[in-house]
Design goal:
The complex is a heterodimer of chains A (about 475) and B (about 425).
Chain A (H helix, E strand, L loop, with lengths): L7 E3 L6 E3 L21 E6 L6 H14 L4 E5 H9 L13 H23 L5 E5 L5 H14 L2 E8 L3 H12 L10 H16 L15 E5 L4 E5 L4 H12 L7 E5 L4 H4 L11 H16 L6 E4 L3 H8 L6 E2 L16 H7 L1 H9 L12 H17 L3 E5 L1 H12 L15 E8 L2 E8 L21 H4 L8
Parallel strand pairs in A: 3-5, 3-6, 4-5, 6-7, 9-12, 10-11, 10-12
Antiparallel strand pairs in A: 1-2, 7-8, 9-13, 13-14
Helix pairs in contact in A: 2-3, 9-10, 11-12, 13-14
Chain B lengths: L5 E6 L6 H14 L4 E5 H9 L13 H24 L4 E5 L5 H14 L2 E8 L3 H12 L10 H16 L15 E5 L4 E5 L4 H10 L9 E5 L4 H4 L11 H17 L5 E4 L3 H8 L6 E2 L16 H7 L1 H9 L12 H17 L3 E5 L1 H12 L15 E8 L2 E8 L21 H4 L8
Parallel strand pairs in B: 1-3, 1-4, 2-3, 4-5, 7-10, 8-9, 8-10
Antiparallel strand pairs in B: 5-6, 7-11, 11-12
The chains are: A alpha/beta (about 475), B alpha/beta (about 425).
Chain lengths: ~475, ~425
């Protein structure tokens, strides 16, 4: 009988319990987030040009990375641009252009080689293979490659025949492509349409019958209809759910914190205090600003905490409360000042500075935990159109990191000052940000990473970057 | 979440899993807090007809039969209207074959008149084995066939299906392109999803795409008895007591004896569940969402201390244990929210052992056994007892296995007096014994 009696130790940073003994079990690091991917997964895009493949690739990659699944896009068009130096015309894409076909195939293979590297060396979990992949032959090549390497494959095909959507697409992202840097608009559009025609000659969509054993989702007409076949595992199921919730209708998302609170003034973190007088003024100003935006059907969301609700009340419109939007739980450090944290928990304070994203407060949460609990909020934000989210500093950082594709290292240090609204508008492949300070003074609550993060540092070094407070 | 009520309408030949889907979906929606009710038209027909004679009733040329069936559908729709417009229901599941465009047209008109959104769920399956299995599992035990032997019943039912086949009009990609629906093909191998309109429809689609019918069992148990359990203290993050460690060993033995294929083991991130899992000698997955309910300011207190320091809170909790939130803590209602991804993943998985905590286990159990919010916080989930849940027919079989290692009782019943002014004695009447 094994004496496998749990000598558990608690990892000081994430506060997760891990076995102390060096058995094959303890190799499972005791991750703070359940691990759902065993085999690496290749998401393979399929579709004619201007069907949103790159848009989907980038967005999906951003989402997966944000929820903690390491993902990377491999855009074969980019390899082609690197291989051919300058783009001449659509003639490159003619199916009878054997020289070009050779180059294009070589590019796909080079990209696949890099995919392999990413999975083995960089420990990536998911790859998004962004290319037209519009022939059975090309897809066979990829399936073969994946099988040889033990990767799962999930196809995402985008089908659209609406000329208006395609025209809009070309306008938004093709005209500014490096391929058309030296063309005038009309020339570029004409050339691109001929390029699409080249592909149409050989395009074979995923077939209901012939491809019935493949795992895929077919997206029709920008999401009006979906065909989903053989979802194999958790990550594919999440991907399908995500793809079915995103849309391209123009809209804006407004992110803001609650007005300045009583505890903010005292330099204390967390808690559930009400607004200070300046905070109340901000709430009014927010109302004026939002009315000035003239938005039809604006949804307003708050957390369950007094300060966000008080802020929303001032707007005089209906709002929805989400517990998931509550500020990060600082556990034993709730309502303390940084000085008090340094005094009472100097080691914790240092650990937090060492890895602010993964650090979990004793009996509290980490930014990593926050992201997990905010995922349903992000999913619903994707479904919605115009939304104003009144939340908190750490929460806002997480949401902002999702929209602006910020890494886990940067996320906890994103600047989200009080009394400043961030207006996010999706544009091309990314997100435009307008920062609007509503002209009502407030304390600064942003604490930069200090230079010395050593557990043995002086209190002076620890407190160097603490913002002023009463 | 939803403004207009939603009418979910099933579509499909008999023995395609419509009632299975209806009941399961209804259970899920109610559990996540969306008041939902199913309306099975076959049930109305049985009440109307009293005695089922044979498949002849369903022949498309049986005028009398058609009249009765139409009346039953109308009666059911009236009850739907009552539920959604008057009784405050949010979702109604209209469970019938609804195989003709004409019938669906009537339903759409009804919904439009009443301001309900409609979402169709069609189940299409031509796999003879699946259909045969279906008939064996749920039709033979049906009141319609109570006086028949197996062969007679199967034969009659197959003829019944034939009656529907000639007039069956599946949802069409072109003709029905403006409708909102999901077509489930071959028990979930393939889905066609059209025009999802809102959040609730999106959640329904996600749920339907994650469920399966592969036979499996889910094992639920709590961590072994902990040091705080013995002292009668709630919450905290203590380790196992000596008896708790014994339990972990017994659990290991039990699991080995069950000889389960490909068992996944899940724990929370609290020491006591992890210690329990460590003893099993197999890999396990830690979920923060399986952590015990956060008792906020009452963490690590005994009930006696809670009564002493927070008598008002203690009484409020007894008044509505499901919705009551500990100061700076959580409620059972919050727990259900945070456990939803766990349930979704449990639906996707096959054999799983979940080692969790009292309040968490009550929430999970309530989902599987369709217990309402009032009963959920009082479900019995004792230490050192494994519940083996096996889906059968339309529900879930439960086997309770006490692993023979004694432990304290941690179950506190609802006391008689829940008044905020009650005496300390009355408040502490039902507190279980502890050291």
């Amino acid at each position: 009988m094994s004496k496998r009696e749990s000598t558990l130790t608690q990892n000081p940073l994430e506060k997760t319990w891990v076995p102390w003994i060096r058995s094959r079990l303890s190799q499972r690091r005791g991750s703070s987030v359940p691990q759902f991917t065993n085999s690496p997964t290749m998401i393979v895009l399929v579709g004619l040009p201007a069907r949103g493949k790159t848009y989907i690739s980038k967005k999906l990659t951003r989402y997966l990375n944000w929820i903690g699944v390491t993902t990377k896009v491999f855009n074969v068009g980019q390899y082609r641009r690197d291989a051919t130096r300058s783009y001449n015309s659509y003639e490159f894409f003619r199916p009878d252009n054997t020289e070009a076909m050779k180059i294009r195939k070589a590019c796909a293979i080079a990209a696949l080689k890099d995919v392999c590297d990413y999975f083995t060396r960089a420990q990536g979990q998911v790859v998004v293979f962004d290319a037209t992949n519009s022939t059975t032959e090309r897809r066979e090549l990829i399936l073969s490659f994946a099988k040889d390497n033990g990767y799962k494959v999930f196809f995402v095909e985008s089908i659209c025949d609406d000329p208006e959507i395609i025209a809009e697409n070309i306008k938004q992202v093709k005209l500014s492509s490096p391929d058309y840097a030296n063309c005038d608009k009309e020339e570029a559009v004409a050339d691109f349409l001929k390029r699409i025609d080249c592909y149409k000659l050989t395009y074979v969509p995923l077939d209901d019958s012939k491809d019935r054993n493949l795992s895929y989702i077919k997206i029709f007409d920008v999401g009006s209809r979906y065909l989903v076949n053989r979802v194999q595992d958790h990550i594919q199921s999440r991907i399908v759910y995500y793809l079915m919730n995103i849309h391209v209708t123009p809209r804006s998302i407004y992110l803001s914190r609650h007005g300045e609170s009583e505890l903010n003034l005292l330099g204390r973190i967390g808690g559930d205090s009400g607004l200070s007088p300046r905070g109340t003024k901000f709430a009014c100003a927010l109302g004026t600003y939002m009315r000035g935006q003239c938005i039809s059907d604006l949804k307003v969301w708050t957390s369950h905490m007094k300060r966000t609700i008080q802020t929303a009340e001032s707007l005089g419109v209906q709002y929805e409360q989400w517990k998931a939007l509550n500020e990060i739980d600082a556990g034993v450090c709730e309502e303390l000042t940084y000085e008090e944290i340094q005094d009472n928990y100097p080691e914790e304070f240092a650990l937090r500075d060492q890895d602010k994203y993964r650090y979990r407060y004793p009996k509290g949460e980490s930014y990593e935990d926050l992201v997990q609990r905010l995922e349903p909020v992000i999913m619903e934000l994707e479904r919605q159109e115009n939304v104003l989210v009144i939340c908190h500093q750490a929460v806002m950082r997480c949401l902002l990191a999702y929209f602006l594709d910020k890494s886990a290292e940067e996320l906890p240090y994103l600047k989200c000052p009080l009394h400043t609204v961030l207006k996010l508008t999706p544009v091309a492949y990314g997100c435009k940000v307008e920062s609007v300070f509503l002209n009502i003074e407030a304390v600064n609550t942003h604490r930069d990473k200090p230079v010395n993060v050593d557990v043995d540092r002086d209190p002076e070094d620890a407190l160097r970057t603490v913002p002023d407070h009463s | 979440m939803t403004n207009c009520p939603t009418l979910i309408v099933t579509v499909g030949l008999p023995a395609r899993g419509k009632t299975y889907i209806s009941k399961k979906l209804t259970r899920y929606l109610n559990w996540i807090g969306v008041p939902t009710k199913e309306f099975n038209v076959g049930q109305y027909r049985r009440e109307c007809l009293k005695i089922y004679k044979s498949f002849e009733f369903f022949r498309p040329d049986n005028e009398e039969g058609l009249k009765i069936r139409r009346q039953c559908a109308t009666a059911a729709l009236n009850d739907v209207r009552q539920y959604l417009s008057v009784e405050g229901g949010q979702v109604a599941v209209f469970d019938a074959t609804n195989t003709t465009r004409e019938r669906r047209g009537l339903i759409l008109k009804f919904a439009e008149q009443n301001g309900f959104k409609v979402f169709f769920v069609e189940s299409v399956c031509e796999d003879a084995d699946v259909i045969a299995q279906n008939i064996v599992h749920v039709k033979l035990g049906n009141p319609d066939y109570i006086h028949c032997n197996t062969e007679e019943a199967v034969e009659d039912f197959m003829k019944r299906i034939k009656c529907y086949e000639s007039s069956y009009q599946s949802l069409d990609e072109v003709l029905d392109r403006d409708l909102s629906y999901i077509k489930i093909m071959d028990v979930g191998r393939r889905y066609l999803v059209n025009r999802v309109l809102d959040h609730i429809q999106s959640r329904i689609v996600y749920y339907l795409m994650n469920i399966h019918i592969t036979p499996r069992s889910i094992y639920l148990c709590r961590h072994g008895e902990s040091d705080l359990n013995i002292k009668g203290r709630i919450g905290g993050d203590s380790g196992l007591s000596a008896r708790g460690k014994e339990f972990a060993k017994s659990l290991r033995k039990f699991i080995q004896e069950q000889n389960i294929k490909d068992l996944k083991v899940w724990t929370s991130q609290m020491k006591r569940t992890i210690q329990t899992a460590e003893c099993l000698g197999v890999p396990y997955e830690q979920w923060k969402s399986l952590n015990e309910i956060d008792a906020g300011v009452c963490e690590e207190m005994m009930y006696e201390e809670i009564q002493e320091h927070y008598p008002l809170e203690f009484a409020l909790r007894d008044q509505d244990k499901y919705r009551y939130r500990y100061p700076k803590g959580e409620s059972y209602e919050d727990l259900v929210q945070r456990l939803e991804p766990v349930i979704m993943e449990l639906e996707r998985q096959e054999n799983v052992l979940v080692i969790c905590h009292q309040a968490v286990m009550r929430c999970l159990l309530a989902y599987f056994l369709d217990k309402p919010a009032e009963e959920l916080p009082y479900l019995n989930c004792s230490l050192h007892t494994v519940l083996k849940l096996t889906p059968i027919a339309y529900g879930c079989k439960v086997e309770s296995v006490f692993l023979g290692v004694d432990a304290v009782n941690t179950h506190r019943d609802k006391p008689e007096n829940v008044n905020v002014q009650r005496s300390t004695e009355d408040a502490l009447q039902t507190v279980p014994a502890h050291f």
